[in-house]
Amino acid sequence: MKLKALLHKTGIECPTKWEEIEITGINYDSRKISNGNIFVCLTGENTDGHIYAMDAMLRGASVIIAEKDLELPSIPVLQVANTREALSAISANYYGYPADKLKIFGITGTNGKTTVSYMIKSCLESEGIPCGLIGTISYKIGEKEYESTRTTPESLDLQAIFNEMLNQDINYCVMEVSSHALQLGRVERIAFDYSIFNNLSQEHLDFHKDIEDYYQTKKRLFIKTVKAAIINIDDKYGERLNNELSNELTIDIITCSLSNNKAVYYGEVVDKNEKTSKLNIYKNNNLLGRLEVHTPGVFSLYNALVTAACLYSAGIKFSSIQKGLAKLKGVPGRFELVENKMDIPVIVDYAHTPDALRNILLTAKDIVKGRLICVFGCGGDRDRSKRPIMGKVAGELSDYCIITSDNPRTEDQKQIAFDIEQGMKETTCKYEVIEDRRKAINKALSIYEKGDLIVIAGKGHENYQIIGGAKTYFSDKETALELIETEHWRI
């Protein structure tokens, strides 16, 4: 592709003398540059792509796009106001605007995004519609599954994924849309057909200046939505979003509630136990039918409700929604039972925010007959303010807590545990600190008695720990299973 064609309609000016430069690809990682590539200098939290411009040139880049005035010998430098916006624009153009040919469902909020995405995918496939998935656990394109590097990929990678979906005759895509992606312009040049807001609570305040900034960033998704916004109005921020969007946008605003039968979609809870949850769904007070999901807890019912509201509004048969939800037996690392030969009930969950931890512990309390034992930690180099809050939540809802490492990264694990303890000490819960996560899980198993339930929170589907600068393999599920199968704690 010629540079002139690549920059067409992107708003980036191309001097005449450079119009015929042949572009073989785009990259924002200088290590991946090959001959004829454009290199886009992105500024991130921990590094600045501009310092790698010379490296990109030496590796064969034909053009550099930068925000700063770079002086490089014998290579064109196009200076723009925002390289992230430029990357989004040229990436969409390079791949022929694949998002415009897809029906895209976007999900934002703090908790439940992954589960809702799996629910939507399962329901669409029950209707006979192939659906790609982009999210926290992985990216799924037909029979292919790629490890997720970000909840929402960088704009270049996102456009490449869309293009691959189309190449496999997949015309539907469901994706989690993170606040980072919205703030950093990863989802520019994408029109979402339907967008879902499930809830919002404290998270990423190391990245956002406060909860208001976090909310306003999430709200950006709905400005990019062309058909309908599906909103859980039982959440206080959802109620606010509904009121604001009703006055600001002309798209359909579809409200959902488990407590207010005046919502467009109202869910009436029929039954909930340790294995399944059931609810009747009404649209404008007319019964559509009953849904059954194989995950306990009220949060699962909210996930099913917004899924049903979104898909039924998109023209999917209610019977397909029923079938899709019924056949989905769970999502990796989301209130996932670790099945084992000794029938010790161990739940692994990704909960790493105060609200998510509260939800899973409340659900666990509904089904536990004995003590609730909780193993959890908090990530390092991230929002410190949530640590004592999570400590207090865990202490109030558990009978015994073991504070351990999560992904301490470059922060001192003792400091992280100390911060958590400040909230834990406001409760009467018995607890201890065991820095090694494997030993912490082993301790929980060693004190287990029949009737107890163990919840291991914070990492869920993740299969690694980041300690210092090292990333090592670690899976809560595999670790718990191995300890149980070998009865290690008895040694």
Plain-language structure description:
- The protein is an alpha/beta fold.
- It folds into three domains: 3-94, Udp-n-acetylmuramoylalanyl-d-glutamate--2,6- Diaminopimelate Ligase, Chain: A, domain 1 (3-Layer(aba) Sandwich), CATH 3.40.1390; 98-327, 3-Layer(aba) Sandwich (UDP-N-acetylmuramoyl-L-alanine:D-glutamate ligase), CATH 3.40.1190; 336-490, Alpha-Beta Complex (Protein-Tyrosine Phosphatase, Chain A), CATH 3.90.190.
- Helix content is 34%, strand content 23%.
- The chain has 15 helices and 23 strands.
- The protein has helices spanning 3-6, 53-58, 83-94, 113-126, 155-167, 179-183, 211-223, 236-248, 298-313, 318-327, 354-367, 386-397, 413-424, 437-446, 476-486, and strands at residues 25-27, 37-40, 63-66, 77-79, 103-108, 131-134, 138-141, 144-147, 172-176, 192-197, 225-232, 252-257, 265-272, 277-283, 286-293, 336-337, 346-349, 372-376, 400-403, 430-433, 453-457, 464-467, 470-473.
- The N and C termini lie far apart (65 Å).
**Weakly predicted, low-confidence segments:** none
**CA-to-CA gap between the ends?**
65 Å
Query: What structural class should be given to the helix and strand makeup?
Result: alpha/beta
Question: What is the CATH architecture descriptor of the largest domain?
Answer: 3-Layer(aba) Sandwich
For the sheet with most strands, the description reads: 11 strands, mixed
How much beta, percentage-wise? 15-25%
Overall domain count: 3
CATH topology of the largest domain, which one?
Answer: UDP-N-acetylmuramoyl-L-alanine:D-glutamate ligase
Mean pLDDT: 94
Helix content: 25-40%
Q: Gyration radius, to the nearest Å?
A: 24 Å
Strand arrangement, major sheet = 8-7-6-9-5-10-11-12-13-14-15
Q: CATH homologous superfamily of the largest domain, by name?
A: Mur-like, catalytic domain
